[in-house]
């Protein structure tokens, strides 16, 4: 009960990743007494947990950092076009130092439950250590890909070697030299891990169930001079991120695939394939992700590249997706990933043909072979989007849990407010613009901050999404998803995770519209005095 609650805050933020840190900075400006609860022992969220070899983002570094602090932009140097995890973790630690954020963060504090007390107008937040904390406002900054999932193979705990999930990688260095290593999973994390581990492992066996369409990252170092030049362009860079479809520097080409001659098309695709970053995915012909024939054309081009890069034609065919088109799932960006399969120390196992039956003390067993390993790496992904919410018991105004309310798919008002859950602000909550995520993080944090400022000024203490506004927003979410080829494919983007009970069916799990349209919805609500938000 409330009597047991020891501390009362104006606001509690769950998570000290990129969202939580920035939200803390903004809430301090409002004069709110704020406490952040963070499960890890340091700041960084995604960039704290994902320390696996080769981990980096696929956004251009200079488009990824915070844009709100001009001095920070002057002071910080990115050393690669796509910074590796240690650099981004260092960056977020610098932010925490600069703003002296750690004094308001409690580390090693995992939130278990949060219950709204309607009589008092407060949340009671319960940690796994049993402690309870009361707060008027509750902000979730718990990430979109932050709940790692393990496969359901029997015997996982019997393995006598070392095993790791990419999203829960230890801080200690893991040495692969001379080791027999298995990687299970070939999503973005698996691809980055594989290309790194292949450099030193004695033997690397990759267990692939579904191949993904990967494309070259074309990373490179940023020297002092280039960094100075980039710095002069920051305003334009961040301006561009506000204008593009998914907040990357790349935006769809205004032409349709078949508007141009076959030669022109080939030349354009060659150019995209040779350029840095996500251009080939989000800067391609504008009909590439909605028109089947257009998509097949691009898929054919990328398949040709894979066949050129992989020497053994049988392995090349295994690496080419057959049941989904290019870009209909997240495109992993790679650095010599396909060439890894030309190395004598690397083997590819197709687990659709020969399924993994169990993990054994010595390694693993498939339907046709027995393998021995020193290290097994699970690159098996996350219970994405809703997963981070499902593992905390949020109980709202009517005693209903968020998990119950969302059982057939999450709902919200612009991803940030919930009907029946007063004063719960869900940063990057369901159906938010994703893409180059920090841009949406800044937008979300600033939107929530503006709402709280509005409430302060008007003597209000309660905000909740109104049901009609939620219904209208969700209609829009469903509308924009129609006609997207990605909706026909199983992936975390369509809410499918074979390792999680009840998540086998495709749903509209993410917002498929553009970030500018997303922002215009949220901005319009604010501009109309928070129309559709119940305030008092
Ligand atoms: P992903 O993209 O969800 O990839 C997970 C991979 O693990 C994928 O290849 C899965 O195959 C495979 N997997 C998962 N469970 C199993 C089982 N039980 N057996 C065999 N293979 C399995 O996760 P990532 O961490 O790579 O990336 C997540 C996002 O983080 C990424 O999109 C970036 O935006 C950042 P499947 O495809 O399901 O057949």
From TrEMBL:
Pfam families given in the database record: FMO-like (PF00743)
Keyword Isomerase: no
Keywords: FAD, Flavoprotein, NADP, Oxidoreductase
MF-aspect GO terms: flavin adenine dinucleotide binding; N,N-dimethylaniline monooxygenase activity; NADP binding
Keyword NADP: yes
PANTHER family reported in the protein's UniProt record: DUAL-FUNCTIONAL MONOOXYGENASE_METHYLTRANSFERASE PSOF (PTHR43098:SF5), L-ORNITHINE N(5)-MONOOXYGENASE-RELATED (PTHR43098)
Protein name per its UniProtKB record: NAD(P)/FAD-dependent oxidoreductase
